[in-house]
Amino acid sequence: MKAKNLLTVLLTFATLIGLASCGNKDNNETSVESPIDNLPTEYDHYYSDRVSFANLGYSLTEENNYFMENGVAKLKLKSVTDGDTAVFHLANGEEDSYTNPLKTPHSYLTVRFLAIDTPESTSSIAAWGKKASNYVRGLLENAEGIIVDASSIDTSDTNVYPTQESKYQAGARLDSNGTRWLALIWYCPDGGNPDDLHSYRSLQLDVIEECYSFYTGNLGETGYVYFADEENEPKLYSRYEYGSLKMKDVLFEAELRMSTLEKRYTGNEKDPNYDYSKTPYRCENRKESIKDAYENWDEYMNQGKFIALTGVITAFIGNNFYFEDAAGYPLYVYMGINGKSIGSLFSVGDTIEIRGRLAEYGGQKQMSDIVWDKSTFTKITNENDMIPMPDIIEISESDFDAKKLDPLLGKLVKVTKMSTSTKGSQSKDKSFTLNGSKKVTYYDENDEAITLSSYGTMGIRFNGTLAPEYTYDEISDFTKSTVSVVGILSIYFEMDMQSDQNYPSYQMVPGNRKVLDDGSLSWDIVKVD
């Protein structure tokens, strides 16, 4: 139930009490009193300034700092995904294999924040989404310390959770897809003392009190964390036994209180930097519309500008695809987590117009927020407006240099000879990488050429959503050999706040395979002498 509805219920209740006790008052006179003790006039963080992790009564030491075992731990930030998701490094050698369907262990934790749900800002762009994401990013990236806390989800009943794995099943400490952990986030702000548990604020409370999220109501039990003052908070005190509030109560009350401001996302306020247009913007030169998007990228993306772009489809990657305009500017189109493929409607080589918004994910520019509607996609049939299929660009290992590769990102490329080493393990969506042997030359902040010690070779990325796909077993034949490969040159970049080497991984991405006349499948990777 949204805060405004909750407030309406309480106001209605207060009205009934007022009517019942009006006594000698004129029947036309009623008095409706707010159920809130201290109505806000600004984003004052009334509750988040008064609640800390220490209120939960836990003791965290290096000896018990094991998230997988105890459900709560101090962890270091790896990256922030958006306003309600982030990735953390596990501590003390712990590994997570529960969120990978293939049970491959990894040393990091992807966390979906319990109790809040901020507007979208990655695969789709919603009003207030970027602002919510930037707010959370600023808090976590500048934090002196972070505590990830899933302890409110009680998995102690051995009849319900007889095994360790059953404790982590979807619906318990994992989200409905079983791929992200659910937890409260506590952070010690910039300049605070990370050794003092009283210094850790509730991220969820701060987000709610900035009006970037409603309280979703899915928090489990905690101890009492806030005690209302009977004299100064009589209304709050009366709603809870002895005025004692658990964490879920505080989150509820914070939303209820801030809803009276009618600000930002929870107040249905218009985002001044979001494009609410129903008609997309089209640049004057339709055939170079992707170029226009690149030249105005920050403005269009940060404003959530609804635009129409035109290009020729160069490759399908599962349900998603790449297209390129007449000026040679390519762009990835992400159809969404549950998006459909337009492969049955259009083919590689077709010129189409598509409507959506600009975004960035994994270091890659993309178009997203695609609505599946007949007006979203238009095939261009006028010969004067059609864009020819670009030629495949040939490169070799001698071109594995960031200055040479960056201008080719998103384009259809053929590596004529490339030495491979081993296969990486499959990820959550069954994607995997055939690792190359040749190191890519990168450049540091002083423009000095460097090679990276831990990673930095060109890879061949086989997307798990390819249709038809390359299977993990059949690519074994291409390890430790020399190959030629055709695909989209792409990068993947995820900031690691704990690393001093933050550079993208370059990768060749083959597209969907074709079914040939004899029923066999095409190959975009072949062995060469």
- Give the termini distance in whole angstroms: 65 Å
Give the CATH topology of the largest domain: OB fold (Dihydrolipoamide Acetyltransferase, E2P)
- Number of self-contained structural domains: 3
Basic shape: globular
What's the architecture of the largest domain in CATH terms?
Answer: Beta Barrel
Helix-strand category: alpha+beta
Beta content comes to: 25-35%
Q: How can the largest sheet be summarized?
A: 7 strands, mixed
Q: Compute the CA-based radius of gyration.
A: 27 Å
What is the tally of beta strands? Answer: 24
* CATH domain class name of the largest domain: Mainly Beta
The number of helical elements comes to 10
Oligomerization = single chain
Share of residues in helices = 10-25%
- Mean pLDDT across every amino acid position: 89
Model regions low in confidence, pLDDT < 50 over at least 5 residues = 1-9, 11-31
